Amino acid sequence: VSRIPGSTSLADLQQSFRDVWAQVDKVLGSANLDFSGRRIINAGRAQDGQDYVTKLDLEAAVRVVPDSVVTAPASRSVLIGTHAARLARTASPPGTLWYETDRTVFYVAQNNAWLYVAGIMRTGAGDVEVIDPNPAPTPPDPPTVPPTDPGGTNTNLTIAQPAGVPASPNLRWFRGNLCGVRVPGLPSVSGGAADPSLVLSWFYDRYNATDRAAIRAAFHAHGYTHFKLSWPDSRDFGTSEAAYVVFAQELAADGFYVGHFLSSKDYDPANPATILAGLATLLPALQGAAVIPWASVGWELSLWLDPTQVQTLVDGVAAVLVPGTNLYVHFQQDYIAFQQPGGVTADFWNLNVGKLTGLLHQKELTQGNALYQARIDDGLSRFAGNFLFATDSGFGHPFDYVTYEVSAADQFSGSLTQAQGDAIGKVGAFAPAQSGPAGTVAVQGFGNGATAGFY
Amino acid sequence: MSLPTDLGANDVGFLLHVVDFSHLVRWNGITWEWAPGDEGNGFIRDYLVQPPVAGWQLCDGSVTSLLIVGHTTLYAQTITTPNETSGTYHKSAATTDGTVQAAVAPSVSGSTASENGHTHDVDPPSTASGGPSATTTVDNTGGGSTVAVGSATHTHDTNVASFTSGAGSAHSHGAGSLAVSASGEPAHINVLRYFRR
């Protein structure tokens, strides 16, 4: 284009005007506009129907376009669906927004998780349960068959296990003895009882192959299906992770459900992050070998951690093990929960829906039989969905209550025989089942032996 | 719609409008708490008209529910409102059970001020003495008529004029059976007392 005439000749001036008008006609004429790849910048927001829209206009429009989980492409920046659908969709590009249609709130995808960002959910009428803080005692329903023990201890299996004892083996229904089986001829081992024949099952790695075979045989002879190990004890003993996995494989190969206690007040600091870091390679190794069908987050968690630390530990372990492993908690004597101060027991368990399968309960050693069953029934009633408890653990059933540790300390000290310990274990297993919104909930087996004949 | 029970650390700040109670609560990652701007509950407020929103219960002795936060699970507890429909004043205290305390009538103690400046009028009655205690007959004319005269002692008519006593000695009086009614009232306006649930 000759923007500037080369001379003042008429021909040059005419040519320059022709060139200029040719360009002007491209913009003002009837032909289509050709920007040759150039952008229109600093444009205002569209106002009238015939206005051009800007990128900002477009993005705003996209946010309100109705969508659905089924049809929305992964690249869409705003997804709309139900709460359940969001939970089912864990991986979305960072920054993706999700509008929950049922809760009317927004979440944003970040680091493969959804984070709440905005919105208010409205409850429905009557959603908030009203409880009487001082309820009048409810008379118990008369048992279908009166207990045979005049002292108030149920000995009727039908009352304890209305649906019957599940056939053996059953992963959720414990048959085990962590500390009670006597195997004559066993050697003394580090940390063991004065009576070397008493088997502390988590010291399994301290015996030679012959003795380990004898222990397994004794457990089979009693009909036990669950065998408990303890990683912190084995670690302190000097057992490597690899060797620990091999011991677990040995037990599993012999038909046991091998369980693992993962932390201990004796060998771990009260620091969930440190504990979890210490489990970082062990847990995948146990999973890889398929020898961790059940586990406890730790021993007597309420004695050496605070509620927040316990929950942090539960969350960390559950994130790795669940749902492939049934995960439990074990507290100090007579504890069934470890909620924040001032809270109610449901607070703890409701936080752990989808994480914990249940409780490995430890008996208060001084309780008599009737009181022990009464305490169990208090817990079973809660696990049955009363007292604000969730009715489902997240795994299709209520939380499980296992009468796990009932006499270990007394057997270790030598003040109880194996038979006496088994008798107490049977008392626990015979605690009457309880009913609630979750249905009828019965004790899910025993972990410290029980007198044979019913399981 | 049921209450959310699956909230965790990723849901911090989750806002829930509890419609039945007109409260806004917030999930702090562990428990429910009052959302900013929500003044909570458990208090009583005066109204001239019925509150226009849910979450208020007239203090008439009825049983209502109180929303409880601070826990993982949101729930409510039953609570009985005090019956304030007959006129009840509020008083600060170190503790309360939320019940109306019966009125207690004021007592009167002490005694009146000491006083010694007053007098009493005295008006003794007129009196007449009795007849002579003994008489003897004498001839008062020498002619035979006689008159009786006192033979020894005798009496006279007496009329003491009224007079005023001297000033009394200082003295006061106790409250005796004086009492003060418990139903007295200052000027006031009648209000409706509502309990925040």
Description:
The complex is a heterodimer of chains A (455) and B (197). Chain A is an alpha/beta fold. Chain A has 15 helices and 17 strands. In chain A, the strands form five sheets. Chain A has a six-stranded parallel β-sheet. In chain A, strand 12, helix 12 and strand 13 form a beta-alpha-beta unit. The longest helix of chain A is centred in the N-terminal third of the chain and has 19 residues. Chain A is elongated. By secondary structure, chain B is mainly beta. The radius of gyration of chain B is 43 Å and the shape is rod-shaped.
Write the layout of secondary structure elements.
The complex is a heterodimer of chains A (455) and B (197).
Chain A: H1 10-28, H2 55-63, E1 78-81, H3 83-88, E2 97-100, E3 105-110, E4 113-122, E5 130-131, H4 157-160, E6 174-175, E7 179-182, E8 198-200, H5 209-221, E9 226-230, H6 231-237, H7 241-253, E10 257-261, H8 272-278, H9 282-288, E11 294-296, H10 301-304, H11 307-321, E12 326-329, H12 345-350, E13 358-362, H13 369-383, E14 400-405, H14 408-413, H15 418-429, E15 434-436, E16 439-441, E17 445-446
Parallel strand pairs in A: 1-2, 6-17, 9-10, 10-11, 11-12, 12-13, 13-14
Antiparallel strand pairs in A: 2-3, 3-4, 7-8, 15-16
Chain B: E1 15-18, E2 23-27, E3 32-34, E4 44-47, E5 56-58, E6 63-68, E7 75-80, E8 121-122, E9 127-128, E10 135-139, E11 146-150, E12 157-158, E13 163-164, E14 192-196
Antiparallel strand pairs in B: 1-2, 2-3, 4-14, 5-14, 6-7, 8-13, 9-12, 10-11
